[in-house]
Amino acid sequence: MKKKIALITGATSGIGKATALTLAKNGYSIIATGRRADRLEELREELAEGVAFLPLVFDVRERENVLQILGNLPKEWKAIDVLINNAGNAHGMDPIQTGNLDDWDAMIDINVKGLLYVTKSIIPGMCDRKSGMVINIGSIAGIEAYPNGNVYCGSKSAVDAITKGMRMDLNPFGIRVVAIHPGLVETEFSMVRFKGDESRSGKVYQGFEPLVAQDIAEIIEFVVNRPAHVVLADIVVLPTAQASATLVNKNLNS
Ligand code: NDP
Ligand code: 8X3
């Protein structure tokens, strides 16, 4: 029997990388994307021998490039079973009145438009085959806005709305559409958000036990292993210490 194929964007670190490794253990062939080619080669080395692996290096913002690369996949990689739209980040954390326009462009272009370009490349094949699953990684930030989160929260609210719309439009084709909205997960996320400033990024996960990338990967593993008539449409997952986007108990274990 043909092995299932998963395409995971943003698989060079964090949630995407953990998901690639986990789905490979579940027998999937893996298409992994990201801008850092060296990281994709590291991922290849971490995969068990015999796992079919196709690394694709591109920036999800580059529309023509995304459509060209994903529109011309090798024949044996075309029939993607699971698309995981994970690539994304926060850039900056400033009040709206002093926000940085380049940061805003990056978040809208990557988290929203990049997700759409990738989706547009893969969905027609799923519609033709009348099967497939799309998993969009949203965020608690898309459910509740928080101070200084403005544009990042907006980008993830857009992911939430787009996911709901996708689920309706793809309903006639039997394509399952899932949104996973994590709270605080310790990855490279805060290093990117604070542009490498460890004095700020280090504090985000101090004083409580955050989620780790593997927690999300295991939820994705559960989601893809449900029988064909079951879709976990909307999942919010938080560390136990977190009760909302802004409420984190840093005294839980003291
Ligand atoms: P990481 O920073 O560890 O990973 C982000 C991934 O996205 C990397 O693989 C990166 O690859 C890729 N990426 C970023 N920009 C681009 C781009 N322009 N083109 C292609 N790929 C890109 O963070 P996480 O693993 O935490 O983030 C993954 C997703 O989870 C994001 O959508 C994030 O918003 C979401 N999320 C994260 C939470 C957290 O607390 N960490 C909570 C809720 C949601 P590369 O740099 O090589 O291009
Ligand atoms: C990442 C979680 O709370 O830092 O989406 O926005 S948060």
CATH topology: Rossmann fold
- Bound ligand species: NADPH dihydro-nicotinamide-adenine-dinucleotide phosphate, 2-hydroxyethylsulfonic acid
- Average pLDDT for all residues: 98
Given the helix and strand composition, which structural class is it?
alpha/beta
Helix content range: 40-55%
| DSSP summary, beta strand count | 9
Radius of gyration based on Cα positions: 18 Å
Coarse shape: globular
Number of helices: 8
Order of helices and strands: EHEHEHEHEHEEHHEHE
Q: How many domains make up the 3D coordinates?
A: 1
Reported for the largest beta sheet, the result is: 7 strands, parallel
Strand content: 15-25%
Q: According to CATH, what is the class?
A: Alpha Beta
Defining traits:
alpha/beta; Rossmann fold; seven-stranded parallel beta sheet; two-stranded parallel ribbon; about 40% helix; globular; binds NADPH dihydro-nicotinamide-adenine-dinucleotide phosphate
Note the topology.
Layout (H helix, E strand, L loop, with lengths): L4 E4 L5 H12 L3 E6 L2 H10 L6 E5 L5 H9 L10 E4 L15 H29 L3 E5 L12 H20 L6 E7 L2 E2 L2 H5 L4 H7 L6 E2 H12 L9 E4 L17
Parallel strand pairs: 1-2, 1-4, 2-3, 4-5, 5-6, 6-9, 7-8
Helix pairs in contact: 1-8, 3-4, 4-5
